[in-house]
Amino acid sequence: MNSSFVSLPFLLMGLCSCNTANESPANSPGNEHRTQSDDKPTVSRIYTTAEDTGERLTEGSTLAFQPATQPLETEIAVFVNPGKTFQSFLGIGGAITDASAEVFSMLTGDKQEELLNAYFSEDGINYNIIRTSIHSSDFGLGSHTYIEEGDDALATFSIEKDKVKRIPMIKRAASIIRDDLVFYASPWSPPAFMKTNNHMLRGGKLLPRYRQTWADYFVKFIEAYEAEGIPVWGVTIQNEPMATQRWESCIYSAEEERDFLKNNLGPAFERAGYGDKNIVVWDHNRDLISHRANTIFEDPEAAKYAWGIGFHWYETWTGGDAKYENLKNINASFPTKNLLFTEGCQEGFDADHYERWSNAERYGNSMINDFNSGTVGWTDWNILLNENGGPNHVQNFCFAPIHADTQNNELIYTPTYYYIGHFSKFIEPGAKRVSTTVSRSTLESTSFQNPSGEIVTVVMNRTDEAIPFKLIVDDVEIALEIVPHAMHTLVY
Description:
Layout: H1 9-12, E1 43-50, E2 58-59, E3 63-64, E4 66-67, E5 77-88, E6 91-95, H2 98-105, H3 109-120, E7 129-134, H4 160-164, H5 166-177, E8 182-187, H6 211-227, E9 234-236, H7 254-271, E10 278-285, H8 289-297, H9 300-303, E11 306-312, H10 324-333, E12 338-343, H11 357-372, E13 375-382, E14 384-386, E15 402-405, E16 410-413, H12 415-424, E17 432-438, E18 443-449, E19 455-461, E20 467-473, E21 476-482, E22 486-491
Parallel strand pairs: 5-20, 6-7, 6-13, 7-8, 8-9, 9-10, 10-11, 11-12, 12-13, 14-15
Antiparallel strand pairs: 1-2, 1-3, 1-22, 4-21, 5-17, 15-16, 17-18, 18-19, 19-22, 20-21
Helix pairs in contact: 6-7, 7-8, 8-10, 11-12
């Protein structure tokens, strides 16, 4: 997995026992994995994060498995069947945006080290995925591209602006992740002159005469970043291609994205020797995802270039449900294509509510259900924002798992950071999802089996009541209780 990194003092102080917004990441989980000769699980390590307690990825007492008994109708059980496995795990991570890099640059060296360790080291929560934008997004100090306006020959292409703050931060994170790095990039808008509205903001479409130029722009981005020593795993074609935003945005119909992929972007990658780069389509919400998948994946000439389909969660903001069944449908309909969560964050930033527990529970619900629907990887939005939820050049402020109080050079760890860590800290790239079901909807759960053979089961309780339950794995069980508004990770 990730390389070891120099431990900071806050990581040497032991398990977190505080319940303030300015908390420090939890200790490393340890390496023991104990099984009997018949591979029956015998001991489970349990890690807990819970509201109104000091527990933040805190390791509790180990429990011994006992022979399982038939659960009663009144009992709640989580059933894990290691004999049934599904998709392979790609990883978990977040985005290093211009905003994140700007805030990072304002921290002292020790706080920068703390932030990087908190996310990317084994002593932190072990992120291995990094997303970034192709030139600007809303999260930055302003709009920019890599060329001079009107340069349809791309002769002025340069990533010099990214080299100032963004690329140095990415390089430092990548040096911790090492071989497990999954780095991908997404555009929010082509340059203004390539669009129907002659503006990077407020939607518009890519003009047909610039489709190949825009595809070549992707190639130049990959060339430039790899020249900096950053291996590019892949790209998404367009961030939120059905949303006209007041920030950088561009609209593609399903047919337009399909045709751009098969006629321009895919062939451009092949000509450049980048046929091994992964192209992700859609990169928008779950509600309309099926139409995009059907349109692109049913076309063999387009589908051959698509690694899979990416999605966000923002359809729930307008009162809709999360539409996890749409993911299950795509997974069943196109089993050779991958599902990747590419962005999510909590809007409505309010500095008085860093500890808002429902933010963390939204992450837990999405991660559990996305993985149970066949998703292979999960990417949060900004990994770091300031005390105002920015910077953002159109005032579209939001929460991040970690914020910086730039006035006092402090990092603020929100409950979301720990909830994500219940997955990312323990599940390793290459793990297989394991069949997991729950007998009552009051609990939510998913499991993965790591390449070492150990199983990681995550259980979340979003209710106001403590819930006793059994974890039943084959013919053995553990009986335990999860307190209100809490998450457990069990490793066995």
